[in-house]
Write a structure and sequence with these properties.
The chain is mainly alpha-helical. It contains 28 helices and 18 strands. The chain has 3 domains: 80-300, Clc chloride channel (Orthogonal Bundle); 328-364 and 423-563, Orthogonal Bundle (Clc chloride channel); 581-757, CBS-domain, CATH 3.10.580. The chain has a 3-stranded mixed sheet. Strands 13-14-15 form a 3-stranded mixed sheet. A hairpin with a 5-residue loop joins strand 14 and strand 15.
């Protein structure tokens, strides 16, 4: 039996609730290729709805807009700025909360384990320490995984694919709920403290988006509270703009990179873009990084010294020591190639793993068990590597938080332990800034290898966690290794500083996994506080993206595809000019007449086989020989509100003066309109008529049936439409284009391929 929590298991398909007999059959089939798993990535799920980015300009809307004078518009604009400031402040505070709690809990855990190891090193019996460490990790991760698997599965992972979909115009259920935010924050804290190979940066983007969606609506459906503020913003258009501001604020709190945040929203997110929006988003990002900075500075006891702009701080890179010369450019490009190949390998492994998870680990209890297993294995690997490492460094002059002596001489510490006895963020900074000679190349190589597989196994678990920091850490480790071997080859020349190569390796690895270009360059530049490296970082990221795209797509796009989400890219597939709107559109279309019987409307809405959300309205002519021309478009949500308030023509003709519906009635029902089953219509009411003329959108966008697919795509994508009516030369409705019809066509390896639609 499928529980609701199996919803997000990356694109659940109907054949997940397998019966026993299918299991028997399956074990006999030799499984060579992952494509033979019944979960098929060449499907589009029909359970995702689109957002209406386009306002319905019906008479109510136009009347309201005409009533608003200039001063009122100015107050709306001021409200927008206020909301953006609030988004920034709250996102910054949430980031502070995560940071402080993680620091204290992780510190506590490391102290306990360190004291335990020190005690048992003296008198033997180190297996107890291993047991303690593994148990601590597994129990913390168990709690973090339980809340995600059983309470809110959408909070799993980094949340970036989900936010990308939301900003693309796909409505992912529960993605911007308050409940999701609470689970996300607790889950991130627990999974980082539990020592998994994860970062707390990715989830900040999701958290910022939830905060933005919540504040801009001025109410919470999870708390069942309506604060009666910001009611003007209760529609998809406004909500989506604020969510993109929230995502930017999240990036800027995570990396201390406000410009990077704006560019992230621009590159990954918002489909529709204008100058005012950019400026507001930048404002939200700045406020968020400033809030984080001031609160953390006060917390660390130097209130005037604003020294921690983001959750991760790469520390300053000195331009004098760390410049680069022209002959290093080919080396950087080579590092980009390596990053692209490793990133593609990471993504391919993760793809197979995710397919396996969808297929077999879809029960919440199994997911929790898997998360605990990964936590225990991570601890064990760390312990074994520290135990086998004979790499001792003097304690003098080193800034190690928890120096672990183990088998080293007095006054020395085990350098392998610093990599594992730290949150990944600290390890990254150490790899960037430790003086040359702090790391044994052999240990570093082993660490890179193990961490690569651990991080790959961890991404996609049912815990809230980001992939940013692990990728940076893997990259920094092999980059530093590269730098060490270079300085070894050049007999210790000054320009082969391992820290610089660690930075380039980190950029290459992250670029190879997530394939962001513009925003990532700026984020790395802002996080290092150094513009000198702008050009090499850009080169490295471009190379990594080009090389990686040759093999497999980026991690986030891959997960979106595995969830069967109808995601629209910037452009239509290149070879699609041969297709026209006639071939793409859905037919037949369910049309309504302008004055329609209530019974007909109820039957159409209750019909589960055609779960349409938009209905063209045609002229209701008494003689049916004449063909009805298109008059407008009305949405399911609007019809439901009309039925709920019983706006029937018969009532209007009686002398009872009935209160006219206002736009407020539609806004109060947003975003969760009641289902048609909950609306009771009596037998007499079914015979009444309903007049749609003042509620329908009288000027819907239409295209002729000869229009080519790229043209239809451009119109649809740029305006953020949900329905596009296809008409013939007599203005009669012949079909309807929705998101699914356009997302079906994708460029595959052999050219244009068409995906099939699944009802799940």
């Amino acid at each position: 039996q499928l529980t609701p929590s199996s919803f997000l298991r990356i694109g659940q398909l109907s054949n997940v609730d397998l019966n026993e007999d299918i299991h028997e059959l399956e074990t006999e089939v030799p499984r060579q290729r992952p494509n033979e798993i019944p979960h098929n990535e060449k499907l589009l799920s029909l359970k995702y709805e689109s957002l209406d980015y386009d306002n319905s300009e019906n008479q109510l809307f136009l009347e309201e807009e005409r009533r608003i004078n200039h001063a009122a518009f100015r107050t709306v604009e001021i409200k927008r700025w206020v909301i953006c400031a609030m988004i920034g402040i709250l996102t910054g505070l949430v980031a502070c909360f995560i940071d402080i709690v993680v620091e204290n809990l992780a510190g506590l855990k490391y102290r306990v384990v360190k004291d335990n190891i020190d005690k048992f090193t003296a008198k033997g019996g180190l297996s107890f320490s291993l047991l303690l460490w593994a148990t601590l990790n597994a129990s913390v991760v168990m709690v973090g995984s339980l809340i995600v698997a059983f309470i809110e599965p959408v909070a799993a992972g980094s949340g970036i694919p989900q936010i990308k979909c939301y900003l693309n115009g796909v409505k992912i259920p529960h993605v911007v709920r308050l409940k999701t935010l609470v689970i996300k924050v607790c889950g991130v804290i627990l999974s980082v403290v539990g020592g998994l190979a994860v970062g707390k940066e990715g989830p900040m983007i999701h958290s910022g988006s939830v905060i933005a969606a919540g504040i801009s609506q001025g109410r919470s459906t999870s708390l069942k509270r309506d604060f009666k503020i910001f009611e003007y913003f209760r529609r998809d258009t406004e909500k989506r703009d604020f969510v993109s501001a929230g995502a930017a604020a999240g990036v800027s709190a995570a990396f201390g990179a406000p410009v990077g945040g704006v560019l992230f929203s621009l590159e990954e997110g918002a489909s529709f873009w204008n100058q005012f929006l950019t400026w507001r988003i930048f404002f939200a990002s700045m406020i968020s990084t400033f809030t984080l900075n001031s609160v953390l500075s006060v917390y660390h006891g130097n209130a005037w010294d604003l020294s921690s702009p983001g959750l991760i701080n790469f520390g300053r890179f000195d331009s004098e020591k760390m410049g680069y010369t022209i002959q290093e450019i080919p080396i950087f490009i080579f590092m980009g190639v390596v990053g692209g190949i490793l990133g593609a390998l990471f993504n391919a492994l993760n793809y197979w793993l995710t397919m396996f998870r969808i297929r077999y680990i879809h029960r919440p209890c199994l997911q929790v068990v898997e998360a605990m297993l990964v936590a225990a294995v991570t601890a064990t690997v760390g312990f074994v590597m520290i135990y086998c490492s004979r790499d001792c460094q003097p304690i003098q002059g080193s800034s190690v938080a928890y120096p672990l002596q183990l088998f080293c001489a007095d006054g020395e510490y085990n350098s392998m332990a610093t990599a594992f006895f730290n949150t990944p963020e600290k390890s990254v900074v150490n790899l960037f800034h430790d003086p040359p000679g702090s790391y044994n190349p052999m240990a570093l190589g082993m660490f890179t290898l193990m961490y690569f597989f651990l991080a790959c196994w961890t991404y996609g678990l049912t815990v809230s966690a980001g992939v940013f920091i692990p990728s940076l850490l893997i990259g920094a480790a092999w980059g530093r290794l590269f730098g060490i071997s270079l300085s070894y080859l050049t007999k210790g020349s000054i320009w082969a500083d391992p820290g610089k190569y660690a930075l380039m390796g980190a950029a290459a690895q992250l670029g190879g996994i997530v394939r962001m270009t513009l925003s990532l360059t700026v984020i790395m530049m802002e996080a290092t506080g150094n513009v000198t490296y702008g050009f090499p970082i850009m080169l490295v990221l471009m190379t990594a993206k080009i090389v990686g795209d040759y093999f497999v797509e980026g991690l986030y796009d891959m997960h979106i595809q595995l969830q069967s989400v109808p995601f629209l890219h910037w452009e239509a597939p290149v070879t699609s000019h041969s297709l026209t709107a006639r071939e793409v559109m859905s037919t037949p279309v369910t049309c309504l007449r302008r004055i329609e019987r209530v019974g007909t409307v109820v039957d159409i809405l209750s019909d589960t086989s055609s779960n349409h959300n938009g209905f063209p309205v045609v002229e209701s002519n008494p003689d049916t020989t004449q063909v009805a021309g298109l008059r407008g478009l009305i949405l399911r949500s609007q019809l439901i509100v009309l039925l709920k308030h019983k706006v029937f023509v018969e009532r209007a003709n009686l002398s009872l003066v009935q209160r006219r519906l206002k736009l407020k009635d539609f806004r109060d029902a947003y975003p969760r309109f009641p289902p048609i089953q909950s609306i009771h219509v009596s037998q007499d009411e079914r015979e009444c008529m309903i007049d749609l003329s003042e509620f329908m959108n009288p000027s819907p966008y239409t295209v002729p049936q000869e229009a080519s697919l790229p043209r239809v795509f451009k119109l649809f994508r740029a305006l953020g439409l949900r329905h596009l009516v296809v008409v013939d030369n007599r203005n009669e409705v012949v079909g309807m284009v929705t998101r699914k019809d356009l997302a079906r066509y994708r460029l595959g390896k052999e050219g244009l391929e068409e995906l099939s639609l699944a009802q799940t």
